[in-house]
């Protein structure tokens, strides 16, 4: 059974603009999933349905096989299970100190002071931000703010973390650090769902990919299944990962017959095999 699923999810904004037009999405427990799509494809709108911030115009969101209900008590339980990290951490961080910000969610659960303190400590340790408890969040760098936003979600002990463009606005090193953090959280058993424009990161970290365009999922599968269909990827105004594009050129234009690769490691091995076979 999927831990999170949407069935024929449709959503229109109050002005009548159709944002989602029949989204069928499925996340199994423990997966790391990337949703790819151009600006305006509906990625953020889809994410806002995953923990009940938006209510579908049509269709259902199912959590552990049960449709989400939209009364306050039910939504609280949903948001304990599914945490969302917004694209801009400034939309999420508001307390005077890091410690207070991370503690906000557990406090709303009515936990004891001791349990709240433990969760704050454990969450900051998990994102390598110990020692920043007394810092004002607005004094932190972009990457540090992203880590604190993730810590605030971790403090709720979620089973699923949804991140909208987690590497947006970060330099390459900061983006790599955030993705490694998410990979480690995934290894610990948390289901991770991200949206991203950075297709080069996807084959390295994700085990499932969905292509979203104009409010519809046009393809889903493993990174290999997605990126081997270059026509569909490009029809969604996306590009192949740089490595895959290089191998594609070597194969199709230079007629070298090298197998497709999606990461540097895969490309290296495939090129070595090709050289040995000559």
TrEMBL record:
Q: Which GO terms describe its biological process?
A: cobalt ion transport
What Gene3D superfamilies does its record include?
Answer: P-loop containing nucleotide triphosphate hydrolases
- The answer on whether this UniProt entry bears the keyword Translocase reads yes
CDD domains registered for this protein in UniProt: ABC_cobalt_CbiO_domain1 (cd03225)
| Protein's cellular compartments | Cell membrane
Q: What Pfam families has UniProt attached to this entry?
A: ABC_tran (PF00005)
Indicate what this protein is called per its UniProt record.
Answer: ABC transporter ATP-binding protein
Q: What is the lineage of its organism?
A: Archaea, Methanobacteriati, Methanobacteriota, Methanomada group, Methanococci
